[in-house]
Amino acid sequence: MSQLAQVDLIIKNAKELLTLSPSIKDESGLGIIPGGAIAIKEGKILWVGKTADLPKQFAIDSHGQEIDATGKVVMPGLIDAHTHLVFGGSRENEFEQRIQGFSYLEIAGKGGGILSTVEATRRASFEELRSLGRRRLDRLLSKGVTTIEAKSGYGLSLEAELKILQVMRALQEEHPVDIAPTFLGAHTFPKEFKDERRRYIDLLIKEMIPKVAEERLAEFCDVFCEEKAFNLEESREILEAGKRYGLKPKIHADQLSPGGGAELAAEVGAYSADHLEYVSQRGIERMAEKEVTAVLLPGASFFLSMKKYPPAREMIEKGVAVALSTDLNPGSSMTESLPLMMTMGCLFFKLTPKEAIQAVTVHAARSMGREKEIGSLDVRMKADVVLLDIPNYRYLPYHFGIDHVELVVKKGRVVYRNKYSHQ
Amino acid sequence: MSQLAQVDLIIKNAKELLTLSPSIKDESGLGIIPGGAIAIKEGKILWVGKTADLPKQFAIDSHGQEIDATGKVVMPGLIDAHTHLVFGGSRENEFEQRIQGFSYLEIAGKGGGILSTVEATRRASFEELRSLGRRRLDRLLSKGVTTIEAKSGYGLSLEAELKILQVMRALQEEHPVDIAPTFLGAHTFPKEFKDERRRYIDLLIKEMIPKVAEERLAEFCDVFCEEKAFNLEESREILEAGKRYGLKPKIHADQLSPGGGAELAAEVGAYSADHLEYVSQRGIERMAEKEVTAVLLPGASFFLSMKKYPPAREMIEKGVAVALSTDLNPGSSMTESLPLMMTMGCLFFKLTPKEAIQAVTVHAARSMGREKEIGSLDVRMKADVVLLDIPNYRYLPYHFGIDHVELVVKKGRVVYRNKYSHQ
């Protein structure tokens, strides 16, 4: 008799096991194993293959379990590569004003816009922000999300930015969803520096970035690069300062006007350039060359009724990896539903269902430099797995506005079950 | 001591109780009672008012309960006025083909389109259809929906249309969500009558409508009035035949081209005209005059990437009551999320949050002739009530893609609770 190998969790009989592994070549492009199974041990993937080939010597630990996925789809935990997780207040009044035709400037004049969220976030206590963040993480998890990127940027003072990043650290300690924190002090100019741009940039570079780095509160540094926010030179200076302190660059680029943001992303070696509605031809080529991931945000297109969409098909054809994210934030995309972003990515940006799935797994992982750990189901990767009650992968973006998640596994542990039933 | 009055259920302390009652005039237009309470007895609303004014003599029955809605919104159960609840199969392949740019005709050539669902529905057994319908009703309920309209129309033969309507009847017997059944034999021409339009219309008028009416399987009769489907004369003839058998008229009107459908709706006294992308000026005026409710379907605009939207603001300004519905169906709107339709109604059609709420309550009730029973919280109305975990009514369409429903009461009974929590 062969020796037993203890495993913690087995999921088997999946109608489609989407591995997203580059080592499995199939027609779908998603590395699908029909009748697939996965075995998990100590938070990592131990084995992936056909259920019929499951090694006989695998024995489930007494605390472990075996999950039957007959008729269903199993895939890597979803990754939301662009969120503004921690903020106070909400802006439903502004939503109504936009519908009624008020312009961005008029809304800011009525006390709306980013700065109104900055005020609410500064006012909110650490515990209030933590409680709000926890509920948002719960909602993300219920949509199948196991890892997110999360930006600060509603503090815009040393104290308030640190508070936001510390809330993220506290949330990381209590919640199963992994958080990659990003410092976005350069989200906009706070009102106390409205007429002293240089002084705010100095504050960012000389005080905030060093302090954030010293306390190891962020992994990335992001800039809202836009004529009305931080111009190209200012953005470069801030991102280069971040790099000197070990913060990896990311950019909000070319959202509202063509501004060379994508080219700058390539120049500074950014992990991602995000938004990209007005990206130039040259910007696309440079992103492809330097392997900068494009993070596209259809929720913002929807919420802001944008006429112009990012040229996703062109980016894909030129070899840019495209990720899709929620952009979760109170002003331009108030949602935690990454699956809905997949549907919108298909309908607005003409991604195929395959590309939409890559966009929230392998490509999203790459935009965060975590492609060796998450985003695909390969041996030794983190055991972040979602079981979906759908008959095939194309069905996920197709049947929209509905939670298809039945179960979420994070680092080998079942952390969420959809308990829906009527009484 | 005053005599005790037994009640079954009390919901109290609602931050906003949206009564939608015409008897309460307030600035919002939604009949809001701040700090509101509602008392329910024998499936009906017994009392509505401020929590502070709750009559002291109300005593909760031993089987009853008291629900605290502090900080939350309470409103009438949502009404989905246009669904195609019962069908077999799904069309995710077609979804992908549309994204890839194939036209409707090309997709039909590849075996897609309505007729592919007709085939799948004819093939499906009664029990299969019942099980699919049950899951869809469960999803609708989880979104806060307590009443729907449901159309046949994927059978297109006497036998298959009766099967669909009988499935609805069986679902009505087992499920808390109320179903108003509509006969839509005139959805399209089945392939066996492709070249014999007149014979199919005769079948509809002389066999199907009489049989459906005889077995009391439908309340409404609907027609897809469109150049490519049933023309104006054919639609009139079918709806008039329905009326002779007691079926109330409804029309799929002016969706793909201007065809006089809205005018016909007014002429035949339809309860609603639905879609209306290409409605004429005259059509809007006639609908207002004859009090035909407009049922708008933003999910179809989204799913089909429609360039043209129905002129909702103009209809509202001219006095037409506007309802919003999911259009739940496998080809042009695969969703049960009525709250998401509210967000899309706001963003695509420029309804205000107030109008979006009226659109799924009072106006939806009117489109089904049920405004005296459901859609508002008034004494003697059916006790169909939703408790939402949101701070105010504007928040409902604003925070999108997320289930805010905490609890649903149908005819005085708690039939759904959202049990979400991570493990």
Shape of chain A: globular
Question: How far apart, in Å, are the first and last alpha carbons of chain A?
Answer: 49 Å
How much helix, percentage-wise, in residues of chain A? 25-40%
Mean pLDDT of chain A: 96
- According to DSSP, the number of beta strands of chain A is 16
CATH architecture classification of the largest domain in chain A: Alpha-Beta Barrel
| Strand coverage percent of chain A | 25-35%
* Annotation field: number of helices of chain A: 15
Which superfamily, in CATH terms, is the homologous superfamily of the largest domain in chain A?
A: Metal-dependent hydrolases
State the name of the first-level CATH class of the largest domain in chain A. Answer: Alpha Beta
Instruction: Give the tally of structural domains of chain A.
Output: 2
Biggest interface in this structure? A-B, 50 and 50 residues
**Using only CA atoms, what is the Rg of chain A?**
22 Å
Q: What oligomeric state is this?
A: homodimer
Low-confidence stretches of chain A: none
Structural class estimated from helices and strands of chain A: alpha/beta
Q: Specify the biggest β-sheet of chain A.
A: 8 strands, mixed
**Could you say what the CATH topology of the largest domain in chain A is called?**
TIM Barrel
